[in-house]
Amino acid sequence: MSAVILDGKSLGLRVEAKLGDRVSQLKKSGIEPHLAVVLAGDDPASHVYVRNKQRACERCGIKSTRVDLPNNVSQQELIQVVERLNADDSVHGILVQSPTPDGTDELEITETIDPSKDVDGFHPTNLGRLVMGQVDGMLPCTPAGVMELIKDAGIDLIGKKAVVIGRSRIVGMPLSLLLAQKGIDATVTIAHSRTHDIAEICRAADLVVAAIGRAETIQADWIKPGATVIDVGINRVADDSRESGSRLTGDVEPEAAKKAGYITPVPGGVGPMTISMLMSNTVKAAELRLN
Ligand code: NAP
Question: CA 180, 186, 187 angle in degrees (round to 5)?
Fold first, then answer.
């Protein structure tokens, strides 16, 4: 048996295409959706992520502005930039690319963003709404993208066992809440680095989500035949057979595709969905101005 591939690249493009109509409506009402991305420092991966987000904005007809700050930017300066963007009525979405430079406090910066412009969905107000079961607001992009992949494939999780491996604020924890919400109705186990017997927990699961950032840690023989496997991890590993000397891989052993019913590829699975959910949140934020 070989798993059905959950193609995030093509679903992401479909999601973006659907946003096109809403963007046109906004523009007819005199509102040009506008995402401001704050990029502090020179982390090469962050520069690639920001470039990909700006390209997605171009595809969707969303204006994007990039605010570049030096690696030695102070916490106070970063906060001032966010406050200026909060006050700018032409800006609908604000994203501060993570990680922010050493010596800055990312949580405080997140809390400074106006919750109605928090297109990353990380502000305590937006995470709090999610805890309260409100899932129509600014949801964190990666968890929301995972839910879209599951929905689009028609995977029924009612009463099913799900394990989310990883409990981060940006992926594992909010995704666990989304899977357990009424209407999705999975029974969710949250696993982490202190969990005993992860292999056994996985073997019993109908859905395994790996979000740990450790290359190919989740083994093929941990996967129940026919289970859905969502691989959130993005890890760069050495590969002498490539000209670049490295390649990207997920948190799940590729052989798991032989046992799973559905599986996300890395790259091309969750990554593109994260970006299309960012576009979706930006359009949603701009639509708030219609009311
Ligand atoms: P993170 O903040 O570092 O959290 C990692 C989580 O994994 C922690 O809860 C940690 O447990 C747990 N963990 C680490 N090693 C483990 C192990 N061997 N067994 C079980 N649990 C383990 O990472 P993150 O920000 O959530 O990101 C996770 C991965 O997803 C990374 O590879 C990241 O690049 C990727 N990612 C991808 C996207 C995308 O768009 N595709 C978006 C965001 C992140 P403790 O809590 O006990 O430390």
Answer: 85
